Amino acid sequence: MNPFPSRFAAGALLLGVCIWLAGLTRSSSLGAESTDPPSPQQIRGTLDEAEALLDSGKPAKARGKLTAAVKQLDSLLELDRLPSGTRGLVDACRSLKEQLALEEVDVSGIKIPDIKSAAGKAAAAKPPAKPADPPDAAAFLGPRPGAAGGPQAVSFVKQVAPILMSRCGGCHVTGRKGGFQMASYEGLMKTGAVQRGVGDASRLVEVIESGDMPRGGGKVGPDELATLKRWIDAGAAYDAPDPTVGIDMLARPLGEAAPVAAAMPAMSATPAGPVTLKPGDVSFAFDIAPVLLKNCCGCHDDDDPEENLSMVTFARLMRGGESGPAVNAGQAAESLLLRKIKGTGIDGQRMPIGKPPLSPEVIALVEKWIAQGARLDLLTPKDPLENLAAAGRARSLSHEELLKVRQAASGKLWQRVIGDEEPVVEPRGDMYLIGNSTKSQMEAVAIAAEQALEASQRLLVGTGKPLLKGGVAVYVFAKPYDYSTFWQEVLDDERPKGLGGHAGLKGDVAYGALVVPAANAGTEEDEVAAELTALVAEQIAAAAFLSRGSPDWFASGAGRVVAMRAAAKAPCVKEWRREATEQLQRLGSAADYFDGQAGPVATAAIGGGFVAAIARPEAKLRMLIEAIDAGASFEKAFGDIFKSPPQSLFEAWAAQEARKPAGSGRR
Ligand code: HEC
Ligand code: HEC
Known about the structure:
Layout: H1 7-31, H2 40-55, H3 59-76, H4 86-102, H5 121-125, H6 137-141, H7 156-173, H8 185-190, H9 203-209, H10 222-233, H11 247-250, H12 284-295, H13 314-319, H14 336-342, H15 360-371, H16 385-396, H17 399-417, E1 424-428, E2 431-435, H18 439-460, E3 472-477, H19 480-491, E4 501-506, E5 509-515, H20 525-546, H21 552-566, H22 571-586, H23 590-594, H24 600-614, H25 619-629, H26 634-642, H27 646-659
Parallel strand pairs: 2-3, 3-5
Antiparallel strand pairs: 1-2, 4-5
């Protein structure tokens, strides 16, 4: 029986068209190069094939393709002037080699060329690419302050904006051709087309160098292109006060009204999802959530809230109580919540009852927040206020400061759940393992966890950068019973059967939790180690996404994708493939998956299959994280990178899965 209603068919058609279109682009770009050194696109194609082979469990064949790609790359590097994207290809080859090594393929014979040792003089003359910034407070809060001001610093306002306006303007500044728009600096940065520090790897440069843009007969001169690249190489800084001012305003020829002062607000805020703050905006997470937690939630929580007004989550607060909405976005004076804390123009009592009024400063903040649109700036509307407040605090701390806060909170949370037992603690850099296994077992977990951390970092943020700001706690439970107690305490729920681990946020704690898998007689030692690596990678990767505001359906799916890569040999990974098909067949509707109704076991299983299908190549996961760390909300970043709403992608994927013959393994 086909469990999918026919409305999936429309989605399937859509996906089919997309695949066809993608094929078309590929073949047209391939057609352009028949000359000797292969084009970057050709090499990319070979690498894609290698990756597909690896995904379908053919590592030896993948090795063959990688060898071919490296050979192509070698001849490309003979060129005097390296085409854009070369550096990215070198990185991609290196990463694939590492992945193959993880699958225990002998790759010692494959020598990845070094771009500096190559003949490319142009490349050698270039300053070394600065790595992108770690997710720090500045990145969250938006663009960096003015350009560093070196001798050849490129000005965005004076040089870059006029180029973008004159060469791309009608289609992408005032227009939105192909879904790509750079209305303002902020908008441009959110598209992900600019990778701070690496002009060559930035889409903005690539589309010009490949000759694809501008369309319509225009041309970007070599000097202009060099200016764009230099600007990005130097960090893509903004040198005007307001990053939301339209690029068309900035690019006006001198003499017209001073554009920068005319700070035109960009009216793009979606009320539902979180938004990016501008300097001077009140942050719900940082400014408002702590006030409500401290002064109001005692009476307005989920157990029988006063006047049915609960403030446990942002979504609940915005729903309002008996008298209707308590917050009217944009209309502070009308909002009951503000009147209640001011004690003016109300029935009943001033809030908080029985306590002195809130300070005038705090009331002013609440007023300003509502006047500015009463928006959420971090995580998701469904997250508890406690997590929102913690996320707001996290943004104001440095990685090192937050590391201390998170570590202390993780220890306290353990104490609260398993009070009578002193835990074994194994700090491993930005990851801290806390558990009640024996010391020797914990050491084995720690070794596997280090591999998991390394693989997750490599896939999601780049080696050596923190996977998430302030690090992540890994709770390791020796006994399933203790793990169940943890669920009960932290998630206020029964632990579902068949789930060996999960990730979550709890106030200041970002954690992955897992129960040590029972040692089956006959399991190979390396399988046991791989299993542990997979379990830890799954949870810490999921935590990395949750802390960046991804909903559960995405975070748990992405966790599995990373784990499949980190430990392809693990027995659980094979199990996951089967589980995804099974759970999908049982799923009532796509909505059950997206809003969590399907339960954590199904969400993780289906998510693993779905996210693996859309996040090809996995570099898309990293692009997503980069976009969020540069200030985009999850929704915005998802739309930019995956090009379609999650729901339609899901329906297309599910329809495709349903057509596969029973028992065929998914790739
Ligand atoms: C005459 C209209 C026009 C002009 C001018 C133009 N584009 Fe485009 N652009 C398009 C269209 C149409 C698409 C969608 C194309 C597609 O999907 O094949 C697009 C898509 C894009 C994309 C997203 C697709 C991708 O490949 O990543 C980027 C980035 C882009 N353009 C950059 C630029 C830049 C930079 C300029 C200026 C140097 C520019 N475009 C000038 C029409 C234009
Ligand atoms: C000690 C318990 C208590 C605390 C603390 C408290 N409230 Fe209330 N709240 C109530 C009660 C009881 C009512 C219903 C009676 C009334 O409106 O005077 C109420 C009603 C409200 C209403 C009206 C809801 C409706 O739909 O009619 C709002 C708005 C409100 N509270 C906001 C707040 C805010 C904001 C805070 C924190 C600054 C807060 N409350 C703290 C007990 C409390």
